[in-house]
Amino acid sequence: PRITYIEHDGTEHTVEVGNGLSVMEGARDNDIPGIEADCGGACACATCHVYVDPSWIGKIPAKDDAEADMLDFAAAPTSGASRLACQIRVGDHLDGLIVRMPETQG
Ligand code: FES
C-alpha cells in the first residue's frame, strides 16, 4: 500500500509500505522526518503523533484506550484526527492513506 506522509512544512513523501508494518515503521524505514517514535512502537511515548487526513478517519480501526491515554501526552495539540502512527497497522485497506505530522513531537 502507498502511504503519503506530509511534514509540517508541507513536504510530501509518498512511499510503499509493506502490509503488517505500522504507519510509524513506514516513516522510519523510509527516513521520513517528523515522527520520532522514541519508544520504538510500544504505545509508550506519543512521539509518533500524526493527524489522519479527514477523508480517512472513518476508514481506520478506532484507537483503543491505551492509545487514547498516551495521546494525552503528545507534545502538539491533539484533535479528533490525532493517532499514534505506531498503532495503525498497514494493510491493503489503507492504500492511499494520508497522514500529516505535527509541528513538534517533543
Ligand atoms: Fe512510541 Fe508510538 S512509537 S507511542
From TrEMBL:
<feature type="domain" description="2Fe-2S ferredoxin-type">
    <location>
        <begin position="1"/>
        <end position="105"/>
    </location>
</feature>
<comment type="similarity">
    <text>Belongs to the adrenodoxin/putidaredoxin family.</text>
</comment>
<keyword id="KW-0001">2Fe-2S</keyword>
<dbReference type="GO" id="GO:0140647">
    <property type="term" value="P:P450-containing electron transport chain"/>
</dbReference>
<dbReference type="InterPro" id="IPR012675">
    <property type="entry name" value="Beta-grasp_dom_sf"/>
</dbReference>
<dbReference type="GO" id="GO:0009055">
    <property type="term" value="F:electron transfer activity"/>
</dbReference>
<protein>
    <submittedName>
        <fullName>2Fe-2S iron-sulfur cluster-binding protein</fullName>
    </submittedName>
</protein>
<dbReference type="GO" id="GO:0046872">
    <property type="term" value="F:metal ion binding"/>
</dbReference>
<dbReference type="InterPro" id="IPR001055">
    <property type="entry name" value="Adrenodoxin-like"/>
</dbReference>
<dbReference type="InterPro" id="IPR018298">
    <property type="entry name" value="Adrenodoxin_Fe-S_BS"/>
</dbReference>
<dbReference type="Pfam" id="PF00111">
    <property type="entry name" value="Fer2"/>
</dbReference>
<dbReference type="InterPro" id="IPR036010">
    <property type="entry name" value="2Fe-2S_ferredoxin-like_sf"/>
</dbReference>
<dbReference type="GO" id="GO:0051537">
    <property type="term" value="F:2 iron, 2 sulfur cluster binding"/>
</dbReference>
<dbReference type="InterPro" id="IPR001041">
    <property type="entry name" value="2Fe-2S_ferredoxin-type"/>
</dbReference>
<keyword id="KW-0479">Metal-binding</keyword>
<keyword id="KW-0408">Iron</keyword>
<keyword id="KW-0411">Iron-sulfur</keyword>
